[in-house]
Write the structure tokens for this entry.
Amino acid sequence: MKARGTLIRRSPLTETSLIVHWCTHENGIVKTVAKGARRPKSPFAGKLDLFYFCEVEIHPAKSGDLHILKDLTLERPRLGLRRNYLQTLAASYFVKLIEQVSEPEAPAPELADLLDRGLNYLEDTEADWRAIRHFEKQLAEFLGVRQSGIEPIHSIDGLFGKTPKQRSELEQRLQNT
């Protein structure tokens, strides 16, 4: 199957392979194994980094939820998210929120689109409190949990659990700017 999405997490599986999580438009949050990705001459070399937007080809697992990443085309590396710690922190917060409210492998193109719009905005614009709150508001509206007079993040918390820890650090750092 082919999909387009953002690399949201990666971790070592073996000495030569990685587990890579994607937020895709077609299949929601998907876990893949990138065999040989840690080898110097891997076809995946330089293409598997956080926040990269790619077209991926995935071979579905016969059992379980760990699929095989066969191929990918890097479409947008979003290098601007690495220009400073605050940009990376805000991008990580957006990813954590999407992960928190998503069911694995449940298509939710609206969530993938929201994440893409948020990351693309941060790539080009300095992170600020207004952007963080706008993302939370859009997420609460999509989830159908936005309530008048209540901060959107509190509505999300009420249904999906504790707010990701990145939010308190973002709040603290953004108040000092």
